[in-house]
Amino acid sequence: MTSQRVAEPSTGAAGTEAAAPATPDQPAASRAAGIARRVYVIGIRLLALLVVAQFLLAGLGIFFDPQFLAWHAAAGAGAIGLLSLLLVPVGRVGRVPGRTLWLTASVLGLVIVQSLLLAPYHLAATGILRAVSGLHVVNALLIFWVVLQLLARTRPASIGAMS
Fold first, then answer.
1. In the 8-state DSSP scheme, what is residue 156?
2. Exposed (0-12), middle (13-18) or buried (19+): which is 72, by Cβ within 10 Å?
3. Contact in structure between 96 and 40 (CB atoms under 8 Å)
4. Is residue 21 a part of any domain in this protein?
5. What are 41-74's pLDDT values in tens digits?
6. How far apart are CA 19 and CA 95, in angstroms?
7. What is the pTM of this model?
8. pLDDT digits (tens, 9 = 90+) for 109-127
9. Owning domain of residue 52
10. Are 110 and 142 in contact, with CB atoms under 8 Å apart?
11. How many domains does the chain have?
């Protein structure tokens, strides 16, 4: 008599069932979802590192060498926006909850707003219009907060709270 092993679903880091070891009975879609969830969680951690690096590049550009501001403006912002955009379909394949995916997508929106907030500064506006560019720093804090929320949602200890 052959014994069949049934894979017990467990909760993974993205708040859904973790990928159990592949068995012949396990559908390919389920394996793909497990891989996508792992890629999503790793991507969120990379996104957090990129946001911290953005703060570092801004500080280096202001206090050390202005050339770092070019990296801050071009490479850093582009990488954060692109990664958040790529993580949404990966999370969808990985069956990450919708609210978490919307939060992930909001990072791209906030990066776009981040660039728009600098328009008055680059256009040499004066007065209160130029002061709007000061919100660039506040928006950076909002991006950081959103990424912290994503980190919390992808922690194994907070799996039950994801929705």
1. G
2. buried
3. yes
4. no
5. 999 999 999 999 999 999 999 999 999 999 998 8
6. 11
7. 0.79
8. 999 999 999 999 989 899 9
9. 28-108+144-155
10. yes
11. 1
